[in-house]
Write a structure and sequence with these properties.
110 residues, alpha/beta, Nucleotidyltransferase, domain 5, five-stranded mixed beta sheet, 3 helices, 5 strands, globular
Length: 110
């Protein structure tokens, strides 16, 4: 795990394009999900369809595919939570060339 504290200053202060935050939106009764990628500087959001589920092995390829659609200069970093669905973050980083950082896991509760 690479801590969010190690993210470059340009990603933290939102001064440079290409720094992303990734998360999941999980549907009612946990039966569906969609991934989100939000560019930190502009707020531009990409939705990542997850037709086969949201476990780590089910999101790796859709996330890779979406990130690889971007030019390399827009794949600087990805900040993610520590949920089990991001267990394969090293594979995602290797496949896309993006640096990944782990944010503190926040439980949203009910």
């Amino acid at each position: 795990m690479v801590s969010i504290r190690q993210r470059p200053a340009e990603g933290t202060d939102r001064a440079t394009l290409g720094h992303w935050e990734g998360d999941l939106i999980i549907g009612r009764n946990n039966t569906s999900a969609i991934g989100t990628l939000v560019e930190r500087s502009t707020g531009w959001t990409m939705l990542v369809p997850l037709p086969h589920g949201y476990k780590a092995d089910q999101i790796r390829q859709p996330l890779n595919d979406q990130l690889l659609r971007l030019p390399a200069q827009l794949r600087r970093s990805l900040t993610r939570d520590q949920g089990p669905q991001m267990r394969d973050w090293k594979d995602i980083a290797a496949a896309t060339g993006i640096d990944t950082f782990s944010a503190i896991h926040i439980h949203h509760g009910s």
